[in-house]
Amino acid sequence: MTPGARVAAAITILDQILTGVPAEQALTGWARSSRFAGSKDRAAIRDHVFDVLRAKRSLGEGDGRSLMIALMRRDGHDLAALFNGVGHAPPALADDECDAPVPLDTPAACDVPDWLWPAWQASLGDKAKAVALVQQTRASVFLRVNLNRASRADAARLLAADDIDAAPVAGVDTALRVRSNPRRIKLSQAYVDGFVELQDASSQWAIGRVPVKPGARVLDYCAGGGGKALAFADAYDAQIFAHDINARRMADIPARAARAGAKVEILTTDALQDADHFDVVFCDAPCSGSGTWRRTPDAKWRLTEDDLDHLGQMQKEALAAAAALTCTSGLLAYATCSVLCKENEDIVNAFIDNDGSWKIVSQEKRLPDADGDGFFICVLQTKKTT
Ligand SMILES: C[S@@+](CC[C@H](N)C(=O)[O-])C[C@H]1O[C@@H](n2cnc3c(N)ncnc32)[C@H](O)[C@@H]1O
């Protein structure tokens, strides 16, 4: 496909997304009905679509065509070469499409919804604008090296044999940043043999914030696909358990654990009721994902105030349930991939206010940057232990 034809395809897909079709669904649907497109075409079109979604507001919030014109203009492309009606390229620009963009107020320029801007500012203070601007950019792909299988340097060498360039991330001993060919990872020998797993560097960092003693019983509560459980299993000589209120979300854990050579015991809601208490409970609560909006930009635009309130309720319930599963001398970790205080500090403070037997051991927040997504983690323990 020509560059212009790729732009035309992105316009078609964006118009679908703007009617409410989820981005992944629109991309997959287009790929299925466009067998002529090769993998490089699909990747380039996907990049166009996601670049627009990250910056939909600052690009003018028009239809697919006006958004793509604004993106190509912002990124310094030759509009006449892309929009010329030749072959499958979109038609040439009309006179009114050649107008210079109008200056924007701060929330619009930062691609943050107006309703969210006050909470965004309150949460991030003088970093509010900078963090929002980071979310307009593409995030790197990160790998977690299974140090039981290989050193980080050996894993990087193995990836290089499959033409994947990956470099260490400073401050996170297990993390590699993929610098070339990220789409080949799942076919690479290093991945197939369980030397590496896809996981953001900030999630890996969070695992290191929770001290786990040898032999400890560790529960990944809110386990989803088990990314945290697997990271605990690789990092510590401990008994690892996984639970999610939605059992189907844990379906991939056995295969992932087998690939990593890790043991993770899955606990259904019934099994959890009969289980002994745990030395560590990691509550990776459902959240807005506001620290990961580079990867899921349409989630930013779909989020509503009601959603945030509803998530707050779920977060409170999940934290209280996780606390009830933690043994008296144990550690309770509350984590989200959100940067909003409402989902982090406010939830922890409400929990402590409600149950005076808990105290904070440590609390840290990573903001999204070149080294990973945004992430919040608070480790608590009962006062009874001191
Ligand atoms: C942020 S995701 C977990 C991501 C996962 N830990 C990972 O690393 O891929 C939150 C998960 O919490 C689950 N969940 C929500 N409320 C829950 C509750 N009260 N108890 C257990 N799981 C819950 C959801 O089904 C969802 O899979």
UniProtKB/TrEMBL annotation:
Entry annotated with the keyword RNA-binding: yes
Which GO molecular function, any one, fits this protein according to its record? RNA binding
Q: Which UniProt keywords apply?
A: Methyltransferase, RNA-binding, S-adenosyl-L-methionine, Transferase
**GO BP:** RNA methylation
- Domain SAM-dependent MTase RsmB/NOP-type residues, every copy: 131-386
Residues involved in S-adenosyl-L-methionine binding: 244, 284
Catalytic residues identified in the record:
337 (nucleophile)
Q: Show the PANTHER family listed in the entry.
A: NOP2 YEAST -RELATED NOL1/NOP2/FMU SUN DOMAIN-CONTAINING (PTHR22807), RIBOSOMAL RNA SMALL SUBUNIT METHYLTRANSFERASE B-RELATED (PTHR22807:SF53)
Family classification? Belongs to the class I-like SAM-binding methyltransferase superfamily. RsmB/NOP family.
Please state what the protein is called.
16S rRNA (Cytosine967-C5)-methyltransferase
Question: Upper lineage ranks?
Answer: Bacteria, Pseudomonadati, Pseudomonadota, Alphaproteobacteria, Rhodobacterales
